[in-house]
Design a protein that fits this description.
2 domains; 17 strands; eight-stranded antiparallel beta sheet; alpha+beta; 356 residues; Naphthalene 1,2-dioxygenase Alpha Subunit, Chain A, domain 1; single chain
């Protein structure tokens, strides 16, 4: 049996080869991992606009989709079944979707309601005239969609940790939304997110809010959970008895779900990072903010998100420039600090071995 690209034992394993961060063929082939579960929107966004085009998912997968809230929440194709026109480009409160090209209309269940000038068409309408519906899952008010029949994300493993948070009641705060463009490969952004090892060196402000000695990482199926403990006297979660972390001063939970979703839980609410691969050399990162307690947003680890983001981007862009070095190819992992990066690289290496 051939030796595995990334060894399962972190103590002896080497990181992904540097070509993974710039090779065009590797980049294109790995895009197939993005057709599985993707974050779509929070329930509060659908309360304001029952129809939302998912531009970020189209940017990732190339498939135009919308999320709609009718009798139930669904993810539908955003393409008219007549001639392929987009049905909507902006969030709206419509109860009927009407194509601007030839007037075909659909209800929010995706069923075609009316089409002018088709009275003589034989066998019309048929099921193919309705909008295609994609798989959906709602976890505590967070809606996910999938374009392929892939296993669900580890919801049951997450429930014990996050049951105490009333995530359903959070409210989308558009002032917290960001759209960053980074001159680096998308996997470098994920690598950086999955370890707190760099915090004392890259994030002096965050390092003051967190107790680095208590920072921990837990690997789960399809994801990684990092737990940041608060410095003495800083803002922390009010954890109920029976919680796995009860009695500890937790400042933040950083949850990554494969391949590109990051959910940062703070006492004030939730910040979501969506990583969008553009090319081997460019990545977009979309931020979405959902608020529970705005008064807490100016305190602790969750109060300096923009500062931390820019610091991370600067480091990632510098690292990306080094990936074409003739003398650097692979590094080693810190067994105590880089379990999350190792887990991610193991997932990618297994997919790579199937593709190539």
């Amino acid at each position: 049996m051939a030796e595995e690209l990334v060894a399962p034992d972190i103590r002896v394993a080497e990181t992904l080869p540097s070509r993974f961060y710039y090779d065009e063929a590797i980049f294109e082939n790995l895009l197939s991992v993005f057709t599985g579960w993707q974050y779509a929107a929070h329930d509060s966004e659908l309360m304001a606009n029952p129809v939302i085009p998912l531009h970020h998912i189209e940017a990732i997968t190339g498939e135009p989709t919308i999320i709609v809230k009718g009798e139930k929440t669904r993810c539908l194709s955003n393409i008219c079944t007549h001639r392929g026109m987009r049905l909507t480009s902006q969030p709206c409160t419509k109860s009927t979707l009407r194509c601007e090209y030839h007037g075909r209309t659909f209800n929010l269940e995706g069923k075609m309601k009316h089409m002018p000038e088709f009275e003589q068409a034989i066998g019309f309408p048929s099921d193919s005239d309705n909008l295609h519906e994609f798989a959906m899952h709602c976890w505590k008010g967070l809606n996910f969609i999938s374009q392929e029949d892939k296993p669900h994300l580890p919801w049951s493993e997450l429930n014990d940790r996050f049951e105490f948070l009333d995530i359903d009641s959070y409210v989308h705060d558009i002032s917290r939304d960001r759209d960053h463009s980074i001159n680096a490969n998308w996997m470098l952004y994920v690598d950086n997110y999955l370890e707190g090892f760099h915090i004392p060196f890259v994030h002096p402000e965050l390092n003051q809010a967190l107790d680095y000695s208590g920072y921990s990482t837990e690997v789960i199926e399809g994801g990684v959970l990092q737990i940041g403990k608060a410095s003495k006297g800083d803002v922390k979660f009010d954890l109920p008895e029976g919680h796995p972390d009860y009695g500890q001063d937790i400042a933040a939970y950083y949850l990554w779900l494969f391949p590109n979703m990051m959910f940062n839980f703070y006492p004030w609410g939730l910040s979501v990072n969506i990583v969008v691969p553009v090319s081997p050399e460019e990545t977009r990162v979309l931020y979405r903010g959902y608020v529970k307690d705005d008064d807490l947003a100016q305190k602790g680890a969750g109060s300096i998100l923009d500062t931390v983001e820019i610091q991370d981007q600067n480091i990632i862009e510098q690292v990306h420039k080094s990936m074409r070095s003739k003398v650097y190819d692979r590094g080693r992992y810190s067994p105590s600090r880089e379990q999350g990066v190792h887990h991610f690289h193991r997932i990618i290496s297994k997919i790579y071995e199937k593709l190539f």
